Structures are given as C-alpha cells and as structure tokens.
Amino acid sequence: MNPEFLSSTQGSLEHSISIEGITEPTILNYFENLNSANFDATAALFAVDGTLKAPFESPIVGREAIAAYLHQEAQGMILAPTQGIIEPQDDAFKVQVAGKVQTSWCGVNVSWIFLLNQQREILAATVKLLASPQELLNMQRSQSQ
C-alpha cells in the first residue's frame, strides 16, 4: 500500500468534512465541494474521462457532463459521510464511504464507492442508496408531488 497516498497531507486541518478512516484530500474535497454547491470544482476532481454513477441514472462520463448533472440534480443536497476505508487496487485505490444524504424532501443512507488513479483523480464514483424498496417507493412518490 502506498503510505504517501494514505497519509494526511498538509492543510488537511482546513477540511470541514471529517470522515473516520479517510484522510485522502480528493475524497474530502468531493464532499466539501458538493456541500458548498461548488459543482464545477467537484467535477474537476474527476479524471478527464471519469464517470459518475448516480442512482436511477445512466453513467455520466466526463467533467463537463458531471458538472452539468450536478448543477441540475444536486442543488440543496447535504452530504454527511461518516466513515470509510481505502483499499489498494492494481494501479488505483478503491475508497468506500458510508453516510447519509439529506435533500429538501428526504434523508437516506448512502454508500459511495470511489476509484482513484495514482494522480488522485476520480476514475469512477458510484453512489448507492441504502434504502428498502418501500422507502425508495415512498421517496419517488414524495419527489413527484
């Protein structure tokens, strides 16, 4: 495992997000930027051909498409990650984070799975809702009203 990748970096005290088990600045910045509605900065954390896999959506590929999607869909979301782990892969790192997302109409438990390259760019981010089918149905009804 690359200790430099896992070590805390200078300036990490500036991060307002704290995730147990995670010190990687790219991941902390992802959550901070989204919570600040800084969607262009969030998209800039992705590799040029990075992919965002959001619930109920086809994969969104590329920084511009990700920024456009976030501007449209992520307004008013508050992400509250609580804990995570980093696992080494062949030429990348897999980061799993658990937490909650609050929208104007509901709150739901979520897991995020990130794949980072050696340059600490996000190759892929997958967002999974951790809700029962009935909870998902209730959320869909609430959103359509």
From TrEMBL:
It comes from the Bacteria. Residues 27-120 form the Nuclear transport factor domain. Pfam families: NTF2 (PF02136). SUPFAM superfamilies: NTF2-like. This is Nuclear transport factor 2.
